[in-house]
């Protein structure tokens, strides 16, 4: 019996793991003995996502090999033991611990090590590199005793490390020897824009200087970093991120050919100078002379080597060799959009530039184009929205002129170029080299109908994640084209979406829920009562359209009353013990002392708990339902109105103090915020709407985190849309620039009405903008360029809303019938609810929860109860 | 302030809704006090709270007002709906649904709320009780 072929893999990193998976795919693991030597104490993990450890990912979540991958394929792994020497004649590897393994085929996937410049003091306590999970654990624990941190190296990884330090709460410095940040990927202009962005995050950037010496105190711990210009940065911690070097020592010592500047030389099939030995990933020097420091080329090498080995064992994989790869990158650093792709620095013969740069907004975009118009590459800083599409178009002549791909809103022709315009060969995910054709096939042939299954099927989107957006758009387009029925229905009662129902209600002029349910509902739901999902959703549609359909809109009128969520029904927010909170509107956050006093008096007289909200107003908690009318009578009397804290409608328009007082302000942001809040108050929408107006680019009002945000410029206002705080924060996108007051209001009118018309139930503008076909470009076409000819109608709808606005609380107080609903008990109208009681805390009240926890079921907290 | 005991509303309309609890029928309110699709809360003589509902089909239901998930007396303020022809109320706090006829929680098999029989009586019958 012949002993099976033995394959030894040295290094279990990202590429090594991919190699094992490819071996398994080709059936090699069934025929050969496979041994893995892994220096790190844990099996392969996702190094690309290393930094996500600091945002909560556990080492287990970063792991790449699922639990039983190794055992399922009979792969022997030796953790925490590195290969120390290689005997090529005997074909054995000996590990540090002294174990020796014979091999028939050897695969080196040893990756790289971080280069630490030979500066004095570099071994002091507090000096780190940024490469492994162990490095991060060490940095994290040391940072607890540190206040300041410095990163030596301003490349991609250095900036990521700096972001991590800042996230750990340290004052952070970046020191970069070359004159700009990320010099490998971006050009001078891009570097300048990037620097402004990074500095805007509060990180101090020193370029054109090198770290010269690490100075430690007597205790051996880092105190400062001496720079080459003689200046000193006081710091407690230093991370070296000055580049990486291939780990080729093992190979070199065994006499394999290595490059002059490092890297194990390989041929197209990833064979080294010894035909029994392969090298893949960052330790290898490819036939194009490159040592790639990115994972995508490494994966290709892994596939190539695995195919070559399978073939040599009688397989017929016949995969083309590895001759070179794309080095596109997108920075994952929080809050900064930077991307470079293709020939970003324009090194090809005759390459031409298309450049758009706005230093004020920190946006820099450059495309490199060949004389025949083919897109060769580019750099995007400050706005990398188009990255996915542009990267995939690289190498071809784009279907629209390149200028239009980089110009912002309102300038030149809009770029209506979605991923659907791409050819099938376009690479959508460069981490896993997945082409558009494969994504389409996942939907059409493998019946994937949601993003997770498309990701699982194609692997696209499971690397750096920068292609996920394009992936989603492609999947949706494909689903739609295939007419695959995904039940997008609103709920069990309606098979239409909210947007479709909006159109139906508008065109058929339906005015009651019963009418809509009985004529448009699913057959089994007609004549029924609807449900807790469609009732409030349709109440909102009816309310948004009421002024235009002339159907009278008070939310407590007639059948409408039965549709509202309890908050809308009582015009207040229900709290955990059954009491309510009261939030009067404070437009723009501006309030007179007299009104402040009224709030104080009302709260005191009714014994309410008061708190300043995150929305620049005051919330009063602990009112019983039967107290609401009396509380509001006092407030309305003093000139307050409902703040709609309960409704899916406009909440607040926050403002900064602006030009009137602030030395930096360039416009009167308070005046604008107040006028916007008064214009859109009471507007019912698919979800709540928030806004803010900042007086200058410092953005103290956080307008970029709002559904529609306004930032003053020297010549007018910039309008941003689709921002969100909350669970999935999103920075708003610039819709149009330098608008006059009237232009601003007109665009917001159209934007809001278009959103209300087309969004799904409970879909904030941010998710809506990400979801709808064509995204921001489409919305801009519709509301700025009136491409659908809808704008007149949208403006009329808003005019009708403004015209029809009445304060809901004032109207309620005038109507005895509506007031009847504000009782605790139908058979004891004057009786207060005995279960609503309070206890004292910090000189105010809080709900007495012991009263509520009955004998049977303990009180569960919001966090502990799963919602549907 | 009034003490927390139930009083029969001055029912001019003649008809009264009654709820059975602890072995006897208690008059609560006229049927007209219920809005279809919404609930009202009522106090029983022993101080416990119930939630009354009317659906589109004309049925009336009474269940305990206490939301078992949070302990708050709020079920009367939930939204009424129907699925497969059976009426339910969704708690206004954490949205669990309770079938009105049985009190069964549709989102958690282990939880239910008490239900109470309801009937409508004319004034004549009522006074003859
Ligand atoms: C009172 C307040 C917290 C505070 O004490 O400061 C608050 C309280 C609530 N927020 Fe908020 N949010 C408050 C400011 C915010 C902010 C900050 C802001 O507006 O600038 C945000 C992030 C900004 C944003 O929305 O993008 C915020 C993001 C949320 C979210 C997440 C939304 C999202 O898109 O992810 C929810 C949940 C939801 O709406 O689905 C939420 C929901 C809620 C609810 C309504 C939860 C509920 O259903 O009971 C809370 C109601 C309390 C009550 O009964 O009055 N609240 N909430 C703030 C009221 C502001 C106001 O004056 O109206
Ligand atoms: C913070 C960070 C962010 C990154 N972001 C990106 C990104 O966005 N996009 C991108 O494309 N790339 C990124 N990279 C680079 C990417 O992680 C690497 O290209 C990839 O990990 C290379 O895989 P590899 O298997 O060749 O090397 P590694 O993943 O480094 O694996 C090599 C393994 O071999 C082990 N080893 C070495 N010598 C021996 C020995 N003698 N015996 C046994 N074991 C040995 C090492 O301990 C290591 O575990 C990032 C890297 C870092 C550190
Ligand atoms: S955003 Fe500008 S104008 Fe407004 S407060 Fe801040 S610095 Fe002043
Ligand atoms: S491009 Fe990195 S995951 Fe797709």
UniProtKB/TrEMBL annotation, chain A:
Its EC number is 1.8.7.1. Belongs to the nitrite and sulfite reductase 4Fe-4S domain family. Keywords: 2Fe-2S, 4Fe-4S, FAD, Flavoprotein, Heme, Iron, Iron-sulfur, Metal-binding, Nitrate assimilation, Oxidoreductase, Thioether bond. It catalyses: hydrogen sulfide + 6 oxidized [2Fe-2S]-[ferredoxin] + 3 H2O = sulfite + 6 reduced [2Fe-2S]-[ferredoxin] + 7 H(+). Residues 328-391 form the NADH-rubredoxin oxidoreductase C-terminal domain. Pfam families: Fer2_BFD, NIR_SIR, NIR_SIR_ferr, Pyr_redox_2, Rubredoxin_C. PANTHER family: NITRITE REDUCTASE (NADH) LARGE SUBUNIT. The keyword Iron applies. Its cofactor is siroheme; [4Fe-4S] cluster; FAD; [2Fe-2S] cluster. It is an enzyme of class 1 (oxidoreductase). Residues 427-475 form the BFD-like [2Fe-2S]-binding domain. This is assimilatory sulfite reductase (ferredoxin). Residues 7-300 form the FAD/NAD(P)-binding domain. Residues 575-636 form the Nitrite/Sulfite reductase ferredoxin-like domain. The lineage of its organism: Bacteria, Bacillati, Actinomycetota, Actinomycetes, Kitasatosporales. Residues 647-782 form the Nitrite/sulphite reductase 4Fe-4S domain. Pathway: Nitrogen metabolism; nitrate reduction (assimilation). Catalyzes the reduction of sulfite to sulfide, a step in the biosynthesis of sulfur-containing amino acids and cofactors. The keyword Acyltransferase does not apply.
Automatic annotation (TrEMBL), chain B:
Residues 24-120 form the Rieske-like [2Fe-2S] domain. This is Nitrite reductase small subunit NirD. It comes from Streptomyces gossypii. It comes from the Bacteria. Pfam families: Rieske_2 (PF13806). The keyword Kinase does not apply. Keywords: Nitrate assimilation, Oxidoreductase. InterPro entries: NirD, Rieske-like_NirD, Rieske_2Fe-2S_sf.
